[in-house]
């Protein structure tokens, strides 16, 4: 099995996080998102301890809530002493409602509205990661109104191609995010930040992309950022105390991907950072990272009930499930690859080649193509692995489908973290 939290029981059922998935589907109905809490806790602890060892005691991983933004997770992040990356009033609201200490929140986004900025300050979000000059002036103005100095990092684009899917690469010079170092915009943004009375510049941020399997792009990004820090020290006398290297470490979705050794990568980045700081004659900044996918992706699974089967002779076989692009748009958007298993027949030989289709009214609504599973029939249970990140958080109500519930499987107890939407939830904001 691709992950250590999966096994096949004596009854031939797939077990996930120690639970029989057939029992879970009967109890909570399908489609159903499941989360293995132990896996999430272990990843938080791994990031925290590896970063502390590699970068020093003040290093902090910030969980990127865009991967999965639910109150129950923010409670976990609080208990695990993580920081968080938030990108909207909605994420701030969710985290604050869960009691997350907002001093440890970093507010991202390439277009924070005036209302967002005011809301974030109202909620006492500790740090803003500022994207551009207009936004910097708006942050300064709101902070002035409130009589505060808002701590900020500046988001820079180091000009790195991390070799991932184009839609999730963000560190290139022509990115919509941040200020490019290469074009001089980063330097100009820094000068502006230093000249504003109500912002307190702490340092710099970069995020080069998502689903990155190599360590090298991080080393390159760290080099470029540290050289920039040295340059602004020389030019403006400003010593950046914080360097945020963003998120993006990859997660295997199929056995074609190799697992990433997060701790080894962090060690490597730490060694590199120390050496570069020494060579540049500078103090090591406090290092932050922003893992999202690598905290929750492989802690997640979606269960579907199989519906119709369609065998188009000489072409392909379709197996349809009771969910699809509304709860998982990642195939439609990125042609993302997944591993699927027939959960109620997990020990049977996988001999049936098929495309798994969703129930939405679009041909592109697929979970994926070319899967091999045991011969399926209506009523079987299909498990899609690795759906913890960017599934629930990207889910929609397309075709007026209700979003599934999210059930967290803890070591001792299991609980519903998000209730399944009802038909009335769908029409709640409509005026009849
Ligand atoms: N920090 C920043 C500023 C980000 O923009 C992101 C992700 C992260 C951290 C977390 O990256 P992660 O560790 O999760 O790779 N919807 C796409 C992924 C979009 C990623 C957006 N930014 C997907 O489903 O693959």
Give the secondary structure arrangement, pairings included:
Layout: E1 6-8, E2 14-16, E3 19-20, H1 21-28, E4 32-36, H2 37-55, E5 60-64, H3 71-79, E6 83-86, H4 89-97, E7 105-107, H5 114-122, E8 127-130, H6 133-146, E9 150-157, E10 179-180, H7 185-195, E11 199-205, H8 216-236, E12 242-244, H9 262-280, E13 286-289, H10 293-296, E14 300-312, E15 316-321, H11 330-334, E16 340-342, E17 352-357, E18 366-373, E19 381-385, E20 405-409, E21 414-418, H12 423-427
Parallel strand pairs: 4-20, 5-6, 5-13, 6-7, 7-8, 8-9, 9-10, 9-11, 11-12, 12-13, 15-17
Antiparallel strand pairs: 1-2, 2-3, 4-14, 14-15, 14-19, 16-19, 17-18, 20-21
Helix pairs in contact: 2-9, 5-6, 8-9
This protein binds ligand LLP.
Describe what this molecule looks like in 3D.
The chain is an alpha/beta fold and 432 residues long. It folds into two domains: 6-36 and 297-427, Lyase, Ornithine Decarboxylase, Chain A, domain 1; 108-291, TIM Barrel (Alpha-Beta Barrel), CATH 3.20.20.10. 31% of the residues lie in helices and 24% in strands. It has twelve helices and 21 strands. Strands 4, 14, 15, 16, 17, 18, 19, 20 and 21 form a nine-stranded mixed beta sheet that branches. The protein has an eight-stranded parallel beta barrel with strand order 5-6-7-8-9-11-12-13, surrounded by six helices. Helix 2 (37-55) runs parallel beside helix 9. The model has no long low-confidence stretch (mean pLDDT 96). It binds ligand LLP.
